[in-house]
Amino acid sequence: MKLTSGGPLPAGAIAHAAWNDLCIRELKRTVRDSEQHVIRRPVYELGVQYCFHRKHVSKALGAVDLIKRAIAEPGLGRASGKSNTRLVYSDVSLLERALEVASQRYG
Question: pTM higher than 0.90 for the full model?
């Protein structure tokens, strides 16, 4: 998901980006059964980028948790080499509004 800085980002776009990052994370994984046989191969290549910082995406339990991690540690995203990530983390008040939207949409 590519975010643009042409105007102020709506909080809903940030909330959706969090949800989308978690969907991408799941589709990047190889799923194995208890005997380590591959059940599902990754749908996305490893190069598909997240909007949020990968450290936060990898540990998040859901979209709300992902946004909470971004609010708690915005410096990580602001120091990212990716312009999307820097944009998402640039405004903590926007992340807080996105948290409210994500709580309503995604629980």
Answer: no
